[in-house]
């Protein structure tokens, strides 16, 4: 007898990771990366194509009764019930018949980081968000409102500030910066006005292209005053988002895990962020995440399977 299948999908701003395993087993049947799946960046038709690729790879593992599949997807760009329905409708359009739940990717990251227990996370990579689970079961959120309205401290925000600083330096309305030469080389451009090409996202925002500028901004921040101020300002902004969450957690010493490339792989930036945050909330307990977002999605899929229904977001 083929056991039911659990599927966890982590749809971040730059790639989508999918894990699948049988109920009661721990060996993954599938652990694979796919293109990004944030509809606010690439459009829903492109997302549907990515989901189609995923389902094609999963179908050989489906039980004979396809309703015995439990799928949880946490996707960057899901912020409202209408967003949830877009993703669930795409699954229906692709012929998926199992159980499904869709939520913001920060929710699955939170579950993975603390195994579904009390705690909080701050994710900072291409975008940024802070989420937490309190002792009385409340799910909290701060930030994560997208590149146009939020994503404080993120790669996108560092990048767009860096590009803007280069334009100001070109105009003479801002200070000269070594970032000009770095960004022209990064994007393969000859003149500063040519950088406008980077900002042309076609059908969506050029989030990844802009976020690529974060690296030279961070690298130059030790020697270039313009970059140093950008980094200082964005680290403080990210700490402000985390502080807004901390003020609602209900206890001062809650565990907080740092996630995302900028906080995990750029120690100087993480230190600057923590210095800002700890000045206001010194008792926060900084911990390492127990698992990642894809593992959190699998945990959510397992809970969905056990409950049979998940708050009206089933297919």
UniProtKB/TrEMBL annotation:
It comes from the Bacteria. Residues 7-301 form the ATPase BadF/BadG/BcrA/BcrD type domain. This is BadF/BadG/BcrA/BcrD ATPase family protein. It comes from uncultured Eubacteriales bacterium. It holds the Pfam family BcrAD_BadFG.
């Amino acid at each position: 007898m083929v056991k039911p299948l659990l599927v966890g999908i982590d749809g971040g701003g730059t790639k989508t990771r999918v894990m699948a395993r049988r109920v009661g087993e721990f060996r993954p049947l599938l652990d694979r990366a796919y293109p990004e799946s944030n509809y606010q960046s690439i459009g829903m038709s492109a997302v549907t194509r990515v989901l189609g690729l995923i389902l094609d790879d999963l179908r050989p593992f489906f039980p004979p009764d396809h309703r015995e599949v439990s799928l949880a997807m946490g996707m960057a760009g899901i912020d409202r019930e209408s967003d949830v329905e877009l993703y669930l409708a795409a699954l229906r359009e692709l012929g998926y018949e199992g159980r499904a739940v869709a939520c913001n990717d920060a929710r699955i990251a939170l579950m993975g980081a603390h195994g579904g227990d009390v705690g909080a996370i701050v994710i900072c990579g291409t975008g940024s968000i802070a989420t937490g689970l309190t002792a009385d079961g409340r799910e909290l959120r701060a930030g994560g409102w997208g590149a146009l309205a939020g994503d404080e401290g993120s790669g996108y925000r560092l990048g767009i500030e860096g590009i803007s600083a280069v334009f100001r330096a070109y105009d003479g309305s801002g200070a000269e910066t070594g970032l000009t030469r770095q960004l022209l080389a990064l994007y393969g451009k000859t003149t500063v006005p040519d950088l406008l090409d980077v900002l042309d996202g076609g059908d969506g925002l050029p989030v990844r292209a802009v976020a690529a500028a974060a690296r030279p901004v961070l690298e130059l921040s030790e020697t270039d005053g313009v970059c140093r101020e950008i980094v200082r300002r964005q680290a403080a902004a990210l700490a402000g988002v985390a502080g807004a969450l901390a003020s609602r957690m209900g206890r001062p010493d809650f565990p907080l895990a740092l996630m995302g490339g900028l906080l995990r792989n750029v120690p100087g930036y993480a230190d600057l962020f923590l210095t800002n945050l700890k000045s206001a909330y010194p008792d926060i307990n900084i911990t390492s995440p127990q698992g990642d977002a894809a593992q959190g999605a699998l945990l959510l899929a397992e809970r969905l399977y056990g409950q049979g229904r998940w708050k009206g977001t089933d297919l």
